[in-house]
Description:
Helix 1 packs antiparallel against helix 2. The chain is mostly helical. It has helices at 27-46, 51-74, 81-84, 88-100, 111-133, 143-173, 178-184; strands at residues 22-23, 186-187. It has a single domain, classed as Transmembrane di-heme cytochromes, Chain C (Fumarate Reductase Cytochrome B subunit, Up-down Bundle). It has seven helices and two strands, in the order βαααααααβ. The longest helix is centred in the last third of the chain and has 31 residues, at 143-173. The protein is elongated. The model is unreliable at 9-18 (pLDDT under 50). The protein has a two-stranded antiparallel sheet with strand order 1-2. The structure holds protoporphyrin IX containing FE (2 copies).
Amino acid sequence: MPKPVRADPATRPDARGASDAARVWDPVVRLFHWSLVASFATAWFSANQVEALHMWAGYVATGLIATRIIWGVAGTGHARFADFVRHPRAIIAYLRDILRGTEARHIGHNPAGGAMVIALMTGVAALGVTGWMMYTDAWYGDDALAEVHGLIAKGVLVLVLLHLAGVALASLRHRENLVRAMVTGTKRPPEEGDIG
Ligand code: HEM
Ligand code: HEM
């Protein structure tokens, strides 16, 4: 679990050069994220339009989730699930802090962001499984399954919108561009009171 950062004269922001950015997201996480955005968008817009494209975009998204699960266990630093999967109590406490405007800056995912990561990954995996099932002998042509698949897809879209709102809120509150951080992999170094 990440720890609060202590005051240390040698690491105070004014004691460092601009090149001391913290390396947060490794290349696997960044490639995973932007490939997931592209494959999810492709699957969404090709649904009921171009069947083969829809299937393959959906399978790519599902394969990315499988890779990220392995990386969440075998990877290092902020990529690890152990770094950002928190107890529901910690997530609720963090959401309360947001309402009070006192939430700490996290160098990795904050507790609410960590919960969203798990929800998004679960949702996309469920789309992959239900999508695959529709092509099995047992479920082929099953209207209820198609309905469930469509409902999960809409649920994940709602989560994506909340995800974007969370990213925008954290970027504004802590005055840093989190979208750019997911591109470059770097963030402003931890300061006193940050969790990292
Ligand atoms: C253009 C749209 C999107 C933008 C700008 C965006 C931005 C971001 C940012 C900035 C983070 C890091 C948050 C942090 O600092 O804690 C992140 C993480 C994440 N986003 Fe997105 N996101 C987008 C769309 C999506 C979509 C469509 C999905 C899935 C369907 C998604 C799934 C995730 C996941 C799983 C993570 C965790 C990354 C990891 O730890 O590997 N995002 N996103
Ligand atoms: C990120 C992954 C995926 C997303 C976002 C997604 C999204 C959607 C959406 C929005 C629909 C339309 C639902 C409706 O009309 O109410 C749909 C339908 C469908 N999807 Fe997916 N899907 C994904 C993965 C897959 C996969 C992996 C497969 C199969 C290999 C698949 C097979 C289908 C089929 C067969 C339908 C048509 C269902 C029907 O008969 O109405 N999907 N999907």
